[in-house]
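Input record (one chain):
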Amino acid sequence: MSLSQITPPATEPITLEQAKARLRLSDDTQNSRLVHLIRTARQRIEYESGRAIFNQTWVERRDSWQAQRGQKCRLAAFATQFSLAKPPLVSIERIEVFDADNFGTLWDPSQYFIDTLADPGRIALGRNAQFPEPGRAIAGIEIEFVCGYGTAVDDVPAGLIEASGLLMQAMFESEDEAVTLPLRVQSLIAPWRRLSL
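The corresponding structure, as predicted from the sequence alone:
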């Protein structure tokens, strides 16, 4: 299994101006570093929580629908439901299955239902449907999906926004992007943290 980001989020949890105000900076000499730290902090919060903060597009490539090496099985309800890897789920863009000759076929969306309210989001089989099996042994299934809380700061849980700001500040002040996650940040993301699938 692999997860690859196709489209990153179009916004960040805090603006450059908000970061400068938090750090009490009045000049522009640190602007490029701050922009980098804002993005890095958001990515770390997403990694630590197992969630997407703002809407973004990912593709998951799988060898099969069954559990893969070192992974928890995401099939449930007598193998009629499959959980997606990165909540919250917004939509499924495509599910493509490849045959032994590397020819891809899109799985007809009428064969499944997408549950975006579940956490994590899931794909449920329609009546008399079954998960299509790939003919290709490696990465024979591609699931392209959009995940995230929305496109604006107000769409996102406040704790995740504040955690991003605090982590950006800690990285700036320590001059170390690999800074240990501060306790305040850990407590803010604790309600949203998920175990890896």
